[in-house]
Inverse folding.
């Protein structure tokens, strides 16, 4: 207490001197949001206080942040669970449910935006159960509770979740709806938060609950939030403009374009709930969630091109209002409901049933709106990159390829010494990447898996699990970065020492699949589902396969996983279109032994010849050597070997000039022809 | 009039002598149904009158049929349109609509069973518009009318439909719902017959109609049926038992199996509206529609294995009741509605929203039933053939292969003489097939296309369109047969004289696709959508493609097109399972020049080796030479050439012993190795 007053008055003085519009209370509130944002935002938030930020003020802000960080919120870290154990949390929730007249409650992993990354304040599933995987759902009943995770997370859930309190079930094979059909009792009222489920989810859950003779009810207040004392604030990371030199199209043009789409759909407006769509539409970027430069927000786009953005404007850096312009109205997030009520009177409202919260549909329905269910109108235009975005991403990939190549050369010298471990290796790669121009962040947590850890598809190294890179094993490294001009994602599998014949055969089958996709030509209208088998055929012929998709969409300084396109077994109706970036990442995993994955990003391009059909092909934009010591030459046919050598020649020619001499020398031999 | 009475009294006398339960009036009613069935049923209907049928009675029945046929119903043949032209029909319908207070009416091609073949009495679209294609829809408004057909039928619709009366639109690109959204007027009431649309269809149409501010209304009586004077009767073809020696599983076991599925689904009953499902379930076959041995009927299956069959029992041959047994209750078709009302009280009712008429849902809904929307429970078990069915179909394919091989050998001798035309050629093949044991019918109208006619994917030769098989052209022949023990479907493309280099290259690319699919191995869970690209890749690499699916399911003495599996671009979620029969039929079509298609039937089989994954492969069961003069050997890799030669060796070994010496000699050289 003694130190607090001087800190505050000192800060107040500096704020006044810098002519900041914020007082100390406002700074404290801002810092609560900053602490709830990923640490990668660094000191960028100082711009929200005063720009430029005088050094003394910057120091005072950081000091204040340290002070407030000590009065820690109650979150999802192991140390938080020491303060309030999982069982206590479950008990608190059950008491609240009883008070609310609910026999049960459903807790999904999703937040209000249904996105891949969830801010701290939305980590309800982790807070309750300890499970931190990227997909899952829990159901709490009076006597029983269960968590549902998919095959990727069975082991992790077993380690993180208290098996006494929660049954662990398979999300796909025994989904919550099915479990509820027998676990709920007749007459039970089971609650759910309509902000956290899509209408499709609700339908499924409703069917299950009703089979038990119970009732599913949307709650107005999330009971978990009510018992979550010390719940982190909503994140407050600065929102910047993404300049047209990187975006390639002005926000005004994009707004007009989306307005036209709405007119074509007979809709007067569209509700946008995916922050990446809003970031694309308005050419803005933020930092509210890890690894994806998103400002969490909602928006309404009108047929005339006007947009209302529902966002905490404390996140705006100076000048952002001017960037957004007069056609963009800013409202506080809690004004969304009232705005939806008005929309209902202005004509059909387009909403995406695959990504928007059930709450949006309920509210619009109650207001009497005519709802047009259709995909988020920004998704497809966002996925089809323009020439400026593609040029930017090619640049970013050269920089990224140079960093990866420097790493691979370093690894070739370091690994034989022995003792190199997974985290040290990925730290080294990150350090190389950070030297690159426009580097902002990793695009996802690096997967650095040595030996048998490489066989765990969504592995994340920790001091407890990490292994050393040992001779005779494979090392799998899947990583990527966010540059202002593009997002990267690359996987290489490297032989440490001499690989076995089996490793080489399986690597080569994965490579054959990678090449089959990279060289595919296909007519306009073809979907990723139709091409997925090309990447698997060589494995299938030996009775092998891999349990993940072959390719996901990739954004332009945005999400490293984006739709609507996808190359996978799962049916996907979206044709691949020129400008779409997707990954090409077949793999093979031998549990307990090794993992193999070869991943490049590829861009859909017109095939450009006078074909009978309009035909597309792929341009590979990722540039880094593929370990030639793992290739069984006799398993490749002539065309495949020619592709491999041509790719390596391109890597050499492009990356060679960007790296130091020592790396260059290594690159020379790493890309020598195999045929 | 003078001749009628003696004919009748003579017939009455013969009926009495044969102890038939039918009198002359009943015979006349029966013959109305016989005349409305496909001519292929021949004299088999005599068994419905008396069995055995004394020859004199048989003669009298045929004479009576000729008499009644003369007082012809008003149908969909060109001569019918001479009696009542299309414009008169449209005018009659519009008058009826006005009287019923309807501003418009929707006329689909589908009948009450939503099947591929529609009996004469269900040919409403053809009666109204003259269009006889297998897919389409018409909408009649007060001032405008439109017909919607897909790309296959644009030309045909242009020729058959009166362009003054009907606008012709593309069924997919500008569907009826979209057209209605602008063509209907505010306040209009647009009618539809809920018997002829699935609920999904209705949803789509409703959305379109409501966009126009109009209302979609289900009619109780189809106004078209009311103005269709002389509408053919419902077909009455004999219903026979399919013996267990061919079916491989008793109907009782199948009923018990389906009952168990219903229990698992929590359903008390299922409404079956697809006649092929009912035929499979009860081991019965009929002849109400062309080329598929179906008895048109509805059924309700109960969880305890009991079935109620809604069918005109005049179609039963003697002994069929005994075959069906006590657990199968027979009711008249018009009792279905009352039965649905009762079902509603007995628990959840399973209905297939993809194949059952909207009427079924409406009726169940009005009765307060809890509806479980799920696929027809017979579809999947029917698709997975048992060992007896597979043995039967292999037998049928040997017979069919021998007939096709005899034809090909005959053609090799005949074509060079010149002047052979499409219809004469397909007639010859049909004659060869008819000599085979268990032959019952063709499985679809033969596609016999010479030269540019081969490029018309759904071509049907007529005296006006047929061409001669000329040197330097390709001849495409797609045909199949119904045998009691199996259904066949085969396409061969034959070079008449010397083919061009381009023809050989494109044929070889089609062959590469055919081989890629035939040799594919794939893990359990793989769908046809995932494999479709294998058959196209070699064409795609040259910017070529074909606009049809690669493979359809095939029944066992049932529909030549069956689901739920399918190998095509269209998303299909059904994994391929052992015992499923599918076609493998890539093609290439050069409009105005030639068509290429190579089709064999293939069966999904366990790969049978100790794989890491449970893996399946295909067994090719069609056996007839593929024209080796069309193969560009240098475009095949070693494995492909080896497959080709191994296939031909199997054809030679299996078919050789079944054909005459002359054919055998031809077969020897037609199957000589290419490598």
């Amino acid at each position: 207490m003694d130190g607090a007053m001087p800190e505050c008055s000192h800060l107040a003085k500096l704020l006044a001197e810098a002519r900041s519009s914020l007082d100390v209370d406002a700074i404290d509130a801002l810092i609560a949001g900053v602490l709830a944002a990923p640490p990668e935002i660094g000191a960028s938030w100082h711009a929200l206080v005063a720009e430029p930020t005088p050094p003394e003020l910057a120091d005072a802000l950081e000091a204040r942040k340290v002070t407030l960080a000590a009065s820690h919120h109650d979150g999802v870290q192991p140390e938080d669970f020491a303060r309030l154990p999982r069982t206590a949390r479950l008990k608190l929730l059950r008491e609240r449910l009883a008070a609310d007249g609910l026999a049960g409650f459903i807790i999904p992993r999703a937040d209000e935006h249904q996105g891949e990354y969830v801010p701290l304040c939305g980590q309800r599933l982790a807070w309750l159960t300890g499970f931190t995987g990227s997909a899952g759902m829990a159901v709490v009943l009076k006597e029983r509770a269960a968590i549902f995770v998919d095959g990727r997370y069975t082991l992790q859930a077993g380690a993180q979740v208290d098996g006494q309190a929660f049954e662990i079930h398979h999300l796909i094979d025994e989904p919550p709806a099915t479990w509820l059909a027998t676990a709920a009792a007749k007459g039970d009222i089971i609650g759910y938060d309509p902000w956290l489920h899509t209408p499709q989810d609700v339908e499924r859950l409703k069917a299950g609950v009703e089979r038990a003779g119970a009732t599913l009810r949307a709650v107005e207040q999330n009971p978990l939030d009510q018992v979550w004392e010390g719940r982190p604030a909503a994140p407050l990371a600065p929102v910047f403009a993404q300049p047209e030199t990187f975006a390639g199209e002005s926000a005004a043009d994009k707004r007009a374009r989306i307005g036209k789409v709405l007119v074509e759909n007979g809709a007067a407006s569209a509700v946008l709930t995916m922050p990446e769509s809003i970031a694309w539409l308005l050419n803005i970027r933020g930092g509210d969630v890890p690894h994806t430069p998103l400002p969490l927000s909602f928006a309404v786009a009108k047929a005339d091109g006007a947009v209302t953005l529902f966002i905490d404007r404390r996140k705006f850096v100076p000048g952002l209002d001017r960037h957004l312009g007069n056609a963009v109205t800013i409202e506080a997030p809690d004004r969304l409901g009232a705005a939806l009520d008005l929309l209902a009177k202005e004509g059909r409202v387009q909403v995406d049933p695959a990504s928007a919260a059930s709450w949006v549909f309920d509210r619009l329905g109650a207001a009497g709106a005519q709802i047009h269910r259709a995909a988020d109108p920004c998704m497809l235009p966002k996925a089809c990159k323009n020439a400026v975005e593609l040029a930017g991403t090619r640049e970013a990939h050269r920089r990224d390829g140079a960093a990866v190549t420097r790493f691979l050369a370093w690894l070739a010298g370091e690994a034989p010494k022995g003792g190199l471990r997974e985290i040290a290796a990925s730290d080294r790669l990150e350090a190389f990447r950070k030297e690159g121009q426009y580097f902002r962040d990793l695009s996802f947590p690096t997967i650095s898996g040595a030996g048998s850890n490489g066989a765990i598809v969504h592995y994340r190294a920790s001091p407890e699990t990490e292994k050393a890179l040992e001779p005779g094993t494979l090392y799998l490294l899947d990583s990527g970065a966010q540059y202002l001009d593009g997002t990267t994602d690359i996987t290489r599998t490297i032989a440490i020492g001499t690989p076995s014949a089996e490793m080489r055969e399986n690597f080569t089958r994965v490579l054959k699949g990678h090449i089959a996709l990279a060289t595919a030509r296909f007519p306009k209208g073809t979907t990723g589902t139709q091409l997925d088998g090309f990447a698997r055929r060589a494995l299938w012929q030996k009775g092998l396969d891999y349990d993940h998709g072959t390719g996901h969409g990739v954004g332009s300084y945005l999400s490293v996983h984006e739709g609507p396109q996808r190359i996978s077994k799962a049916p996907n109706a979206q044709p691949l279109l020129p400008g779409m970036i997707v990954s090409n990442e077949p793999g093979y995993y031998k549990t307990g032994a090794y993992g193999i994955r070869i991943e490049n990003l590829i861009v859909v391009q017109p095939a450009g010849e006078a074909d009978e059909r309009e035909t597309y092909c792929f341009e590979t934009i990722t540039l880094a050597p593929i370990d030639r010591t793992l290739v069984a030459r006799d398993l490749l046919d002539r065309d495949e070997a020619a592709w491999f050598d041509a790719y390596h020649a391109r890597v050499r020619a492009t990356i060679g000039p960007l790296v130091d001499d020592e790396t260059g020398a290594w690159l020379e031999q790493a890309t020598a022809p195999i045929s």
Residues 387-414 of chain A form the longest helix (28 residues). The radius of gyration of chain A is 26 Å. The mean pLDDT of chain A is 95.
